[in-house]
């Protein structure tokens, strides 16, 4: 699970930061999932190491322009390129109407299936490896955050040990890999857990923007390996944050702390904190780290590999 930040500015792009978009790359499946799609996102993808041909899912948080204005252009380009198989899009009510109108008035017709799913709180996607949940945030319009949870996987099967025990290969190996207890033809009882390494704990990512501090964001970020959270304003501009229902650096850090998250990466920064102004982004980072030390700030084209946690061996209790 590799994260690439494609846009980290709020509201409007700057010379060094585009507007909101984050890509999640799943190399083992040759898939790319996109979270928000601000204007210029397809240009950012082209400038990165990502492959548009791997795009298959897009998750939209809300209908503000800096999160959706790049969506129609990206989808149109995918059709012209002819190498995207299908795209599923998840987002708030009104998203399908927006895309239908844009398609109609621009005379754009997709050469591949596009399905729009209107989301509501709860599980919105699940397969054998991942579950995606959405929850309500607190913004000026309906806004959702997303939680991507990788399912736990059995530890590596120790085939060398199985051979030493003279366990015959075949269907029994599959049972042992799943941790089942098997009785062999010679009467021996083998516990599959004894032949498998530690369980690989599924990784969890939460994506929360745009929002003021709220319980919904804390719930989505529970025990997350990575929380991506907006931090539009500095703490001294908290009044402005409450008026516009955006987060300060301290709100993002408090969300990570309350949720027991393992790592916070802030994004969606106001252009007002440019170098030479009273406050710049280094000051914002210090504010957040005073509350939640394991905090970093995103920048365009920053990549982050989400680390995997392993379940402790029972003997280590």
TrEMBL record:
<comment type="subunit">
    <text>Homodimer.</text>
</comment>
<feature type="active site" description="Proton acceptor">
    <location>
        <position position="66"/>
    </location>
</feature>
<feature type="binding site">
    <location>
        <position position="268"/>
    </location>
    <ligand>
        <name>Zn(2+) 2</name>
    </ligand>
</feature>
<feature type="domain" description="Metallo-beta-lactamase">
    <location>
        <begin position="202"/>
        <end position="269"/>
    </location>
</feature>
<dbReference type="InterPro" id="IPR036866">
    <property type="entry name" value="RibonucZ/Hydroxyglut_hydro"/>
</dbReference>
<feature type="binding site">
    <location>
        <position position="64"/>
    </location>
    <ligand>
        <name>Zn(2+) 1</name>
    </ligand>
</feature>
<keyword id="KW-0479">Metal-binding</keyword>
<feature type="binding site">
    <location>
        <position position="67"/>
    </location>
    <ligand>
        <name>Zn(2+) 2</name>
    </ligand>
</feature>
<keyword id="KW-0862">Zinc</keyword>
<comment type="function">
    <text>Zinc phosphodiesterase, which displays some tRNA 3'-processing endonuclease activity. Probably involved in tRNA maturation, by removing a 3'-trailer from precursor tRNA.</text>
</comment>
<keyword id="KW-0255">Endonuclease</keyword>
<comment type="similarity">
    <text>Belongs to the RNase Z family.</text>
</comment>
<feature type="binding site">
    <location>
        <position position="210"/>
    </location>
    <ligand>
        <name>Zn(2+) 2</name>
    </ligand>
</feature>
<keyword id="KW-0540">Nuclease</keyword>
<keyword id="KW-0378">Hydrolase</keyword>
<feature type="binding site">
    <location>
        <position position="139"/>
    </location>
    <ligand>
        <name>Zn(2+) 1</name>
    </ligand>
</feature>
<dbReference type="InterPro" id="IPR001279">
    <property type="entry name" value="Metallo-B-lactamas"/>
</dbReference>
<dbReference type="GO" id="GO:0042802">
    <property type="term" value="F:identical protein binding"/>
</dbReference>
<feature type="binding site">
    <location>
        <position position="66"/>
    </location>
    <ligand>
        <name>Zn(2+) 2</name>
    </ligand>
</feature>
<dbReference type="InterPro" id="IPR013471">
    <property type="entry name" value="RNase_Z/BN"/>
</dbReference>
<dbReference type="Pfam" id="PF12706">
    <property type="entry name" value="Lactamase_B_2"/>
</dbReference>
<protein>
    <recommendedName>
        <fullName>Ribonuclease Z</fullName>
        <ecNumber>3.1.26.11</ecNumber>
    </recommendedName>
</protein>
<dbReference type="GO" id="GO:0008270">
    <property type="term" value="F:zinc ion binding"/>
</dbReference>
<dbReference type="Pfam" id="PF23023">
    <property type="entry name" value="Anti-Pycsar_Apyc1"/>
</dbReference>
<feature type="binding site">
    <location>
        <position position="210"/>
    </location>
    <ligand>
        <name>Zn(2+) 1</name>
    </ligand>
</feature>
<keyword id="KW-0819">tRNA processing</keyword>
<feature type="binding site">
    <location>
        <position position="62"/>
    </location>
    <ligand>
        <name>Zn(2+) 1</name>
    </ligand>
</feature>
<dbReference type="GO" id="GO:0042781">
    <property type="term" value="F:3'-tRNA processing endoribonuclease activity"/>
</dbReference>
């Amino acid at each position: 699970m590799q994260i690439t930040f494609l846009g980290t500015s709020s509201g409007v792009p700057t010379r060094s930061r585009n507007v909101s978009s984050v890509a999640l790359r799943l190399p083992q499946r040759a898939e790319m999932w996109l979270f928000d799609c601000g204007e210029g996102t397809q240009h950012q993808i082209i400038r990165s190491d990502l492959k548009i041909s791997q795009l298959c899912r897009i998750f939209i948080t809300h209908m503000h322009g800096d999160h959706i204005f790049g969506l129609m252009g990206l989808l149109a380009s995918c059709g012209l390129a002819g190498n995207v198989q299908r795209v599923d899009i998840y987002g708030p009510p009104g998203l399908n109407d927006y895309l239908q109108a844009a398609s109609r008035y621009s005379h754009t017709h997709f050469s591949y299936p596009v399905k729009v799913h209107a989301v509501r709180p709860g599980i919105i996607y699940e397969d054998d490896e991942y579950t995606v949940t959405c929850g309500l945030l607190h913004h000026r319009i309906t806004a959702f955050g997303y939680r991507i949870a990788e399912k736990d996987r059995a530890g590596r099967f120790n085939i060398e040990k199985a051979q030493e025990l003279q366990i015959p290969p075949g269907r029994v190996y599959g049972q042992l890999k799943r941790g089942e207890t098997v009785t062999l033809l010679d009467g021996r009882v083998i516990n599959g857990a004894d032949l498998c390494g530690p369980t690989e704990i599924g990784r969890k990512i939460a994506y929360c923007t745009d929002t003021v501090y709220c319980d919904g964001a804390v719930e989505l970020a529970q025990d997350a390996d990575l929380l991506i959270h907006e931090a539009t304003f500095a703490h001294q501009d908290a009044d402005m944050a409450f008026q516009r229902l955006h987060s300060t650096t301290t709100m993002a850090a408090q969300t990570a702390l309350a949720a027991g998250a393992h790592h916070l990466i802030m994004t969606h920064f106001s252009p007002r904190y440019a170098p030479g102004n009273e406050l710049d982004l280094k000051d914002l980072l210090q504010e957040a780290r005073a509350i939640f030390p394991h905090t970093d700030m995103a920048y365009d084209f920053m990549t982050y590999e989400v680390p995997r946690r392993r379940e402790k061996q029972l003997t280590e209790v």
